[in-house]
Amino acid sequence: MNKLYIGNVSAEASEEDLESIFKQWKIQHSGPFLVKTGYAFVDCPDEKTAMRAIDVLSGKVELHGKVLEVEHSVPKRQRSCKLQIRNIPPHMQWEVLDGMLAQYGAVESCEQVNTDMETAVVNVRYATRDQARLAMEKLNGSMMENYALKVSYIPDETATPEGPPSGGRRGFNARGPPRSGSPGLGARPKVQSDIPLRVLVPTQFVGAIIGKEGATIRNITKQTHSKIDIHRKENAGAAEKPITIHSTPEGCSNACRTIMDIMQKEAVDTKFTEEIPLKILAHNNFVGRLIGKEGRNLKKIEQDTGTKITISPLQDLTLYNPERTITVKGSIDACSRAEEEVMKKIRESYESDMAAMNLQSNLIPGLNLNALGLFPSGAPGMGPSMANVPPPGAHGGCSYGGQPESETVHLFIPALAVGAIIGKQGQHIKQLSHFAGASIKIAPAEGMDAKQRMVIIVGPPEAQFKAQCRIFGKLKEENFFGPKEEVKLEAHIKVPSFAAGRVIGKGGKTVNELQNLTCAEVVVPRDQTPDENDQVIVKISGHFFACQLAQRKIQEILAQVRRQQQQQQQPKPPSGAQPPNPRRK
């Protein structure tokens, strides 16, 4: 991938002009410029140089009145399933990127390309040409956190010519293991089957971990084959910053050990005398199993590694901070061994939960959790092939044709938060709508003093989950709720008036069970006048997961009502009817 295509070249441009531009921007090339009418080709000594040329020149440098377009030169026969996505926001989480890519098809591989650029670059392989073509059309030029994504084809050596299958061999290569990036490019580690390692570090050591112009952190990622996110902008002014490490268990441990060594050296250099413990962040769901019955598991880790381990109290948890802090004290060697043992237990818990989720995936009917990008696509039992398949028993929000039915939810947010949800020039709400695959609109205020505004979300279950999750998260990020306060919102869904009784149940039994199961408050106001569509409102209040589970359960009830109606409406033969006997003559 060292050969470049230079497009939008002026008819007046010469080989010398192009050579002058490359020299001006200190970009090396290993061969002469092949100039054609309107375009040109050139070879670079390596891919890193080619990437820099694309980043520095494409869409930015003008020659004879025309802005040059620079990208990898890919022969038509090799324009198949592989894309390169550039200008990805530097702090974007892998989970968000995976979720975005999965909207356009099954992603077989996604590998990070190590570059000197501030933004990230990945090479992506889709299962089919059509999926890659769709991703190219939709993503190229689209805005992501104020960065315009740049997407182009890269050579796919396994590509087969398009046309009718011959001898059943077409697509054979695509079923094999995806090619990994060359070692020099720092291919994205296969992280899907493992939960990332998250650690807290004192803010004063973040600069040393990053290094001058990011040199230290790049070196760590290269040596340990990991992807490291330093969340510098989180918790402004806080004494500690979280770091997320994506890699194999061994890669995570190596990166963690290196970070501890760097902090220790920096402490010596700055005469910092306090002890620097290792602080691991883990979701509360896994902590009980880490501790073990009567604390046996934790005690064994302490004894085996020679460390002292404490865990932050439950009182520190909120819906948007479900992590506990595991503080490990001891020598660097001891802390490193303890990290391996702690994360081993957490990963075992995670894999156990994933397996259980696959077995009980009808807990939230109609919701394809894999398509949301919330869980790694390579997790046990959830390969890419399942990306578009509803979970077993998921009938609640689906039509009989197999496509999820669109739903409408009215979510009420503080009136003061409307600007944050819309964003500058409507940018945030557009991105949110694109990300979730839903229509999202803010209803007009009901009067000058209205304290709440209604957000109208229209889309299938997966889109509802994504859109509502982002809105809840945005309100927390923008401090519309206190640091230790859960975000609780009210959602309204409309149900046919004749089905309201089914939601309530005899003597309120169903609605009470709903509230106990979901921890949400569910109310069907009495004495409602049905609207023009003969529908009434069900009000759901609670934190995000409570609201989601309640919405799914109510949709399941409605789906049962619809099925029963369809069965009743099917024509039945008259009772006792038999075919007439022929008359005897």
From TrEMBL:
Domain of life: Eukaryota
Domain RRM, residue spans: 2-75, 81-156
A Pfam family it matches: KH_1
Region described as Disordered: 156-190, 560-585
Entry keyword set: mRNA transport, Repeat, RNA-binding, Translation regulation, Transport
Low complexity composition bias: residue spans: 174-189
Keyword Repeat: yes
Entries under CDD domains matching the protein: RRM2_IGF2BP3
Biased composition (Pro residues): 571-585
Entry keyword annotation includes Flavoprotein: no
PANTHER family: KH DOMAIN CONTAINING RNA BINDING PROTEIN
Family statement drawn from the similarity comment of this UniProt entry: Belongs to the RRM IMP/VICKZ family.
Protein name, UniProt field: Insulin-like growth factor 2 mRNA-binding protein 3
Organism: Xenotaenia resolanae
Record lineage: Eukaryota, Metazoa, Chordata, Craniata, Vertebrata
Gene label: IGF2BP3
